[in-house]
Amino acid sequence: MVIRPLRRLRKATVRLSVGEFDIALPAGSSAEIHGVTGAVLEAASSIKAHYERYPSPQVIALPQARKGFLKDIRMRTRAVILTCDIEGFTSMSEGMDVDQLGLFLNRYFEAMTETVFARYRDWLSAPGLGMPASSRIHAGIACGEVFYGSVGYARRSDFTALGKAVNLASRLQDLNKTTGATILIDGETRAGLPESDPRFRAVEPILVRGFSRPISLYGA
After folding, report:
1. How far is CA 38 from CA 32, 129, 137, in A?
2. Of 41, 72, 136, 203, which cross-links 87 as Cys (Cβ 3.0–4.6 Å)?
């Protein structure tokens, strides 16, 4: 009655150690086993929630389906990359208290992330905090194959995306200033939108820095 629950707990902790967070365990036959079981399940839920603050839940689900993270998340996939810049951010931040700046950015990242996840929140209204009344952003969006995952070594690594689409999205974000657009997208991204979508107009192909041939662009 004791050995079997302990074996289950041991297996659960091994699974947790390699990043397999979706663990189910019976409650246990004694108060002690029940308490340990609850602690393991709570730890799994807490660590999963922590991971989901960095890559999205959809990304977390991929290695979960492959029985855990093992050591790192590394995948090659097709993705749409979006990069943004807050217009006048340097001069804006110069006149803000550091606490206000932190709050402003937290609300900005929350709104941007939730918008990408198809939800909208108002991040501009903050009465009495001296927050800017409005802000403009420039965005670049490009589609293509990317490497997505951990880059680094045993003691230090970052979670990032690498590839042509990443570089192009960054360049397009900068080019908004010279084309007069707020959002610039590449031809592959435009091809994924309905043909009748009126939001993006064709922009004269531009030789983007770091690319050997002119890129077909669309702006809004």
Report:
1. 10, 42, 46
2. 136
